[in-house]
Specification:
The complex is a heterodimer of chains A (about 160) and B (about 290). With about 160 residues, chain A is of the alpha+beta class. Chain A contains five helices and five strands; from the N terminus they run ββαβββαααα. Chain A has a five-stranded mixed sheet with strand order 2-1-5-3-4, covered by helices on one side. The termini of chain A are far apart. Classes of the chains: A alpha+beta (about 160), B alpha+beta (about 290).
């Protein structure tokens, strides 16, 4: 049940043969080796598999790989530029917004989309929590994550 | 890998109808956030899928020449909630949609999928039922329309024949112009949760009287329902604190909540009476009314 699809993954054009029964999560991990995309709950509740599809966050576990045809996908692997972390990634490091790490790539992608959407807007910590409501973290208690996002929004030099 | 046996992709409404006719066992898959969860859990009745995910003619939000708001069923929740048209004319729908899932789910899930899934907790259903929304259904015999309220026939059952597909959700101008609304979802968490009770009220006021009220509840019966008896009782009454008390008392006759693992019937009734008062009060305030 295979189909050919063409999509852009982290800026690079890919032609892939995917089974129609495969999730985008499976294709990204198994065919492209993008292991930052985690399977947590597999039913769209935890956000560990969050990637950006045409710059909008989705759960890759509940998205058929064939639907990615003609679209662009971003995962954590493609976020650094010239060996430098993205501003969101750097803010997560600076604020210690990482503990066990399994939710982190999903959080970074959800946060990246939130920051891109709300650049130069005034947002409250509550707004950030709403923006990250599709991601679960069982370690940090979220405070450092919210602070990291706030910092990424404030950071004007990049 | 998801476990289904056949897959066909439809590029248009006509193609979807033809594919449904060809395979009586086939199910449509749109945004996938309900279907893929069921498939993940190995539900055998979804062996044959017709993929309507990318039918462009079903993905739109417009206002027609008569001023009616028409929503394509493949519009994802995020697009509906953020649509300038929806926020301007029927903001109660945006309010309700923003309580569904989280951002990722709202970027994938479609409004038509939420309605066709037919569960009593569908949060996009109560504002639309309160707005007297009409659904357009197309099948081999051409299009037909019916009130959304009668589209819901039972738990997880809607009035679609096997060869039919939902093609539009319409809120006519006379059903939203001069109406103001409010929505509240009672759930255990602020996000990623299923409604224990959902409530939408839409009202029209004039000179301190309630000209019209339309009150809808989710999870208060096997399908999303309207409180028709309560609405009839209070239409035309002066807006006073007693009016709100009477609404809260009257709704219990309109609803039929059940006990589930999520909440007991008695608890649901308690929430229903509380929300009836609060949501109607806020809808009246949104309409510029005062309660005195």
């Amino acid at each position: 049940m295979n189909r050919m699809i063409t999509c852009t993954v982290n800026g690079k054009k890919k032609e892939l043969s995917v089974d129609v029964r495969q999730s985008l999560l499976e294709v990204l991990r198994e065919q492209l080796g993008l292991l930052s995309v985690k399977q947590g709950c597999a039913v769209g509740e935890c956000g560990a598999c969050t990637v950006l599809l045409d710059d909008v966050p989705i759960d890759a576990c509940l998205y058929l790989a064939v639907w990615a045809d003609g679209r662009s996908i971003r995962s954590v692997e493609g976020e650094n530029r010239n060996d430098k972390l993205s501003r969101v990634q750097q803010a997560f490091v600076d604020e210690g917004a990482v503990q066990c790490g399994i939710c982190t790539p999903g959080f970074v992608m959800a946060a990246t989309s939130f920051v891109e959407k709300h650049k130069h807007q005034k947002v409250s910590r509550y707004d950030i929590r709403l923006g990250l409501a599709g991601n679960l973290c069982r370690c940090t208690g979220y405070e450092t994550i919210v602070t990291a996002v706030q910092k990424s929004l404030d950071d004007d030099d990049q | 890998m998801f476990n289904f046996k056949s897959y066909a992709k439809a590029g248009s409404i006509q193609e979807a109808i033809q594919l449904l006719e060809q395979n009586p066992e086939a199910h449509l898959i749109a945004g996938g956030t309900d279907m893929l969860v069921k498939l993940h859990k190995g539900k055998a009745q979804f062996d044959h899928l017709i993929d309507i995910h990318d039918i462009a003619e079903l993905n739109f939000i417009t206002k027609n020449d008569d001023g009616d708001i028409v929503i394509g069923p493949l519009s994802c929740f995020a697009h509906v909630a953020e649509s300038a048209l929806i926020r301007k004319h029927i903001p109660v729908l945006s309010e309700a949609i923003l309580t569904i899932g989280g951002p990722q789910v709202r970027n994938m899930a479609t409004i038509g999928g939420n309605l066709c899934n037919g569960v009593p907790s569908a949060d996009s259903a109560t504002p639309l039922v309160a707005l007297n929304a009409v659904v357009t259904i197309e099948g081999e015999d051409g299009p037909r329309q019916m009130p959304l309220e009668s589209f819901f026939v039972g738990p997880s059952r809607v009035a679609l024949e096997q060869h039919e597909i939902l093609t539009a959700i319409t809120v006519t101008h006379d059903n939203y112009a001069d109406y103001y609304g409010h929505f509240h979802k009672y759930a255990m968490r602020g996000a990623m949760d299923i409604s224990t009770i959902g409530c939408s009220a839409v009202c029209k006021i004039e000179d301190g009287t309630l000209q019209d009220l339309r009150l809808a509840f989710g999870v208060a019966a096997p399908v999303p329902i309207r409180c028709k008896e309560t609405e009839a009782k209070v239409r035309g009454r002066k807006i006073t604190p007693e009016l709100l008390t009477d609404i809260a008392k009257a709704v219990t006759a309109d609803v039929r909540p059940r006990t589930s693992w999520r909440a007991a019937k008695e608890f649901r009734l308690q929430i229903i009476t509380t929300l009836a008062r609060r949501v109607v009060e806020q809808a009246i305030l949104n309409a510029g009314g005062t309660i005195q």
